[in-house]
Design brief:
The protein is mostly helical. Helices cover 46% and strands 6% of the residues. It folds into two domains: 183 residues, no CATH class; 53 residues, no CATH class. The relative contact order is 0.14.
Length: 263
Amino acid sequence: MNKLWILVLIAGFSLLHLIARAQTGENVDVRAGINHGEFERLLNKYVNDQGLVNYGAWKQDAADISALDNYLKQFADKIDNAAQENERAASLVNAYNAFVLRWILSGYPIESIWQLKDSFTAKRYDIGGGKVSLDDIEHGTLRPLIGYRAHAVLVCAARSCPPLQRFAYTPSQLDEQIDTAYRDWLSRSDLNRFMPDARKIEISSIFNWCKDDFDKAGGVAKILAQYAPQQYHDFLASGNFETSYLPYDWGLNDQSNHGKEYS
């Protein structure tokens, strides 16, 4: 076996190890009454229709960096009145995405979130009077709270992530917003591919890594049939196809060329 293949295998095993480690986290509570309006303004300004972020322009705008910081400060307060159900889920989805954006901006320009130290496991984010990690928000809280629905809305700054939406999640619209996020994700042929004539699908590795969550909701095929473009519904509902998983592109979800050549 030549050295190149050895390096490829090592990289593959390392990624699988990182993924396995990321399946755990602690429970996170968040206070009620957080205002997400300013976060939505920032998303509208810096995120395009493909879910890519103009990090370069954002980093140059000190006022909007401060606006993001001030938004995130709302999460830091000790909890007198804890958010429940949809409010808790919406706030933590927004928190996850906003913390990721702030983390990327702190190190920008970079090619991938993996170039920053302990991005997912370090307890560096202030919520409810304590420090939490991204893994705590995702695996310790949102996956148990909303199950498979978490996987269309949490965006870890990678090009293979579901597209970052240009709106903030809200308690009253959460279910509809998650539906929108799923439909956007599954309509992207660069992220999920459906080939009825060949009886094949090529889908995001997220459906493999988090298969248990989808199985609890009736299986991957059921979720795909529910949210994929209309012309594929009958094909996907049949379950009669071969499934493969697309390689995950961890390049930065930047509107510029940063991340395009990352491997």
